[in-house]
Amino acid sequence: MSHRDPLCFRRRAVGAVLAGTAAALAAGAAWAADTAPPRAIKPVWVQKPTLGELMSVYPHSALDNAKMGMVVIDCRVATDGTLSACTVESQPRGKYGFGEAGLTLAARFRMAAQDADGRPTAGAGVRIPILFKIPDDRAR
Fold it and tell me: N or C: where does the chain have the smaller number of CB atoms within 10 Å of the terminal CB?
């Protein structure tokens, strides 16, 4: 095929567009990865909920039916160490309300300005597992 062949020109043009698109997608993926906030892997907690606070938000229907549940919430650490923008990452199936209870407890956590490795925590994301389990002295 010659350089003047229209079909050859179209193939090159399509190839250039595909290569450009692939490069743009790769750059976009790298940009998206760079914008993810750092994670607080080894948090140092200045404040955590007490057993009394956990029991105060324990879902009534779960308590009445002696159900336990593990919730994982995902939050961002504010500059003062409190948690914000929390969401439920996982919770047990069923309609007991463990996820909502976990979100309520998020206000009772506060993290130190640096994690155990000395990295700043402000702006970092953190995953917090919370086990809702009826204490032995309250179990039926």
Answer: C
Give the separation between CA 10 and CA 97, rounded to whole angstroms: 59
Show the domain range for 102: 45-132
Q: How many domains does the chain have?
A: 2
Q: Where is pLDDT greater, at 111 or 18?
A: 111
How far, in Å, CA of 24 to CA of 42, rounded? 35
Question: Which of 84-92's residues contact partners 24+ apart within 8 Å by CB, and which partners?
Answer: 89/127, 92/67
CA gap 24, 32 in Å, rounded: 12
User: How many C-beta atoms lie closer than 10 Å to residue 3's C-beta?
Assistant: 7
Residue 58 has pLDDT above 60, yes or no: yes
**E strands along the chain, which residues?**
45-47, 69-77, 83-90, 110-111, 125-132
Token duo for residue 73: 């919430």
Stretch 12-35: mean pLDDT, rounded? 47
